[in-house]
Amino acid sequence: MGEIGYARNVFDQITEPNVYLWNAIIRGYCKHSLFGEVLEMYSEMQGNGVSPDGFTLPYVLKAWSGGGGSSVKMGFGVHGHVFRNGFESDVFVQNSIVAFYAKCGRLDKAWIVFDRLDDRSRTIVSWTSIVSGYAQNGQPLEALRIFSQMRHSDVKPDWIALVSILRTYTDINDIEQGKSIHGIVIKTGLELEPDLLIALTSMYAKCGEVLVARLLFDQMDIPNVILWNAMISGYAKNGHADEAVALFRKMIGVNARPDSITVRSCIIACAQLGSVELARWMDDYISRSDYRNDVFVNTALIDMHAKCGNVDFARRIFDHVSNKDVVLWSAMIVGYGLHGRGREAIDLFNSMKCARVEPNDVTFIGLLLACNHSGLVEEGCNYFQSMKRDHGIEPRHQHYACVVDLLSRAGFLDRAYEFIMEMPIEPGITVWGALLSACKICRNVSLGEYAAERAFSLDPFNAGHYIQLSNLYASVGKWNNVKKVRKMMSDKGLSKDLGYTSIEINGKLQAFCVGDKSHPRSKEIFAELEKLERRLKDTGFTPNTESVLHDVQNEDKEESLCNHSERLAIAFGLICTTPGTPLRITKNLRACVNCHAATKLISKLVEREIIVRDANRFHHFKDGVCSCGDYW
DNA sequence: GTAGGGTTAG
């Protein structure tokens, strides 16, 4: 940036710059994407009585479409400028106009100019402008149609044309067709330009083919930051959070400079892993980096700490950000919501109003979540009402589902049903799922069956809903119906999601599934487990056998309950940490009634704080009580 | 000395 400033100083000392010099300074600004300056210089140039030439206009057009120039008003002026200055047949100027209109989404106008081009002027550049115009404006299918039309003409795609079409395969989620572009590259022996490599890597990574993506990634001698980002975010998005973090560490190790997108992708990966220690490491890294004051990065950090169980850490970051925007406020409110700290969420919402920050739809998701997880029924309903009435925000599916969950879990099944019937939009899968799971808790078979029916019709292959219905039948002893549901599942080839629990020991995550005997210290774990069960029984704890699916003898039920993966994780945590250390546990399903009750008691017996992140929220167990107040 | 492309998004 210093060079362009220096160039400007020199330029300003010239008394009567000619077109050549004006173009040079305009080109400089254009190269640095300083489009405002480009337009300023352009008008200054005309004010000084110098007419633009065929080299000037492409820069100006680029500035118009890239900067504040995408306004319609600017667009209208374009042709005027070109005609007034006599460039209606200049190849470069004409192609710039095609690109200008395409970028602004005015494909109709782009086509008019495109069609008027003579054969000599209609090049791969013109085609690429049109194709990427569609691709960038949310019409991937149209982009693909034009691309294939182009391939039937004599125009040969070059690497930029391929780069611009590649993203459309990701958009329509068609990796097979995307691979064919990779095929073209190999077949035609096109040079694998760095930017083409990036586009290919990014496509494979986004579509979940991380192994192929990594092969391409490793081909680049000096990977640039965009390539790192494509790979890291690809890992994070496709359930390879650990690899995302590992690659980020490698990046730092080789002294490559992460940008704000890199660190955000890595923070998202850390949030997925849920490790407190890793979260602290990331936090520490950011605090020493240039991004410590970046609002986007701080928002991601708040979300990460909340998801890793440290909502108070999240709050510390929140308090340190000086210019809080609505998303930052919302992230903090959602964080409190996850931990069932409803009052704090509401307090924060009030402070937000005092700070004159207007809430958005995410803010209300957080509020409703917080009310839901704290049993604040009337407050939640009031916020839902106020959303549209006071803030003009139209509720989305998630908001409706939250209210249904809130009402039905509090036992107001009738109100929940009425609420659904009055919805102005078609109730979605989440709404019926919420009602169904509440019916299981309240043992309301008839409404539960209805909700299940609706859920099955919307998503016949989601095993979770069948399990819910089966659990509902089991809870009232309708074993025949349990069998029927299980048959429905096996007919559809569905099986129960395997429950697993992981526990963090010294920053390392160890996972267990039900009755897991694969751990090297399995013997010790089961011995500890037995000890725990004995102590539980001594205090008079009787397992609630309802949460067992099968119609089996009571003894067997109890046996399988004690084997639940979270019990194993707790036992393991107890034998390898020093007394008093909190245990941090993550599970992929919702907490089961029995384990929840047992964990409360265990926290008291062994004098440990036990923090559990389940599929929906956090539970902080301490001294025999849980932060959720048994409401989840 | 001029025209087309790419990472991300609470």
From TrEMBL:
PROSITE patterns: PPR (PS51375). It comes from the Eukaryota. Keywords: Repeat. One of its GO terms (biological process) is RNA modification. One of its GO terms (molecular function) is RNA binding. Pfam families: DYW_deaminase, E_motif, Eplus_motif, PPR, PPR_2. This is DYW domain-containing protein. PPR repeats lie at residues 18-52, 123-157, 224-258, 325-359. InterPro entries: DYW_dom, E2_motif, E_motif, PPR_At4g14850-like_plant, PPR_rpt, TPR-like_helical_dom_sf. Residues 540-632 form the DYW domain. SUPFAM superfamilies: TPR-like.
